[in-house]
Amino acid sequence: MNAASIEHATVIGGGTMGRGIAQTLAMCGIETALVDLDQAVLEAAYTGILAALDKGVDRGKITEQLRGETLSRIDTTTSLDDALSAGTQVVIEAVPEILGLKCKIFQDLGERLGPSVLLATNTSSLPISEIAAAAKHPERVTGMHFFNPVHIMKLVEVVRAEQSSAEAVECSLELARRMGKEPISVMDSPGFASSRLGLVIGLEAIRMLESGVASAEDIDKAMTLGYGFPMGPLKLTDLVGLDVRLNIAEYLAEKVGAHFQPPQLLRDKVAAGELGKKSGQGFYSW
């Protein structure tokens, strides 16, 4: 495994994270197949990538040439067979945070692909070792936890499963660097580093709002102006998705401790369909 020699990649899952990963891979010169079972999701993903690239050109962040080259390197397909037929050297899975679904995908990938193909899962909290155990040659499996929006956010958590080889971890770190990211290496543990720390702050901000300590705007301002956060914890929760935060909180409450128990306000908003930016309403109106 050598990140510098990767020419073909496959991303499974055409949602927000998958399309961002595909765009970033293509921007660094890698031919990328983006796979999703739903053609409508793929069409929305391509539209989102196009919009992000156009915005980059308008703001002078990228050139017209890079925009065109990036688009030329991205192929969308509903067929995993087609995606893998070009001789993919790395597969990054970015489907919803459902452990059984991810394990099923990695079992399938393990059967289809030889041991030299790097397999990575983009998850913010699920156990990498369990996902790796589903695949043949689990030593080539790592976690690569990207952050939204992928083409802008610099951090990637490279998560070492119990089975991960040093070669697979190093390849994941180097691939992240090739993509213009700053990776950190963490052991497989509930919530890894970023989700565990970030969620503690986010849940406490929700409890403060719930008990009337301050408004959402002022709680966020306390963290942006007082602590230098680029974004307040409540606005970030809106961007991540309240449902996503709730699922992670419930998982960490079970695995780590009661201080991750979700506030009732979070449960109520998710039950009401107030999921954040993607639904138009969360702690803010979008």
- Helix fraction? 40-55%
Total domain modules: 2
Overall pLDDT, averaged? 94
Q: Pairing-aware structural class of the strands and helices?
A: alpha/beta
Rg calculated over all Cα atoms: 19 Å
Helix and strand element order: EHEHHEHEHEHEEHEHHHHH
CATH hierarchy, class of the largest domain: Alpha Beta
* Major sheet: arrangement of strands: 3-2-1-4-5-6-7-8
CATH architecture of the largest domain, by name, is 3-Layer(aba) Sandwich
Cα separation of the termini:
43 Å
In words, what does this structure look like?
The structure is a single chain. By secondary structure, this protein is α/β, with parallel strands linked by helices. It has two domains: 3-187, Rossmann fold (3-Layer(aba) Sandwich); 195-271, N-(1-d-carboxylethyl)-l-norvaline Dehydrogenase, domain 2, CATH 1.10.1040.10. 48% of the residues lie in helices and 14% in strands. It contains twelve helices and eight strands. It has helices at 16-27, 39-58, 64-72, 80-84, 99-112, 128-133, 166-178, 194-210, 216-226, 233-240, 242-255, 264-271, and strands at 8-12, 31-35, 74-77, 90-93, 118-121, 141-145, 155-160, 182-187. Strands 3-2-1-4-5-6-7-8 form an eight-stranded mixed beta sheet, with helices on both faces. α7 (166-178) links the parallel β7 and β8 (182-187). The protein starts with 7 loop residues before the first strand and ends in a 15-residue tail after the last helix.
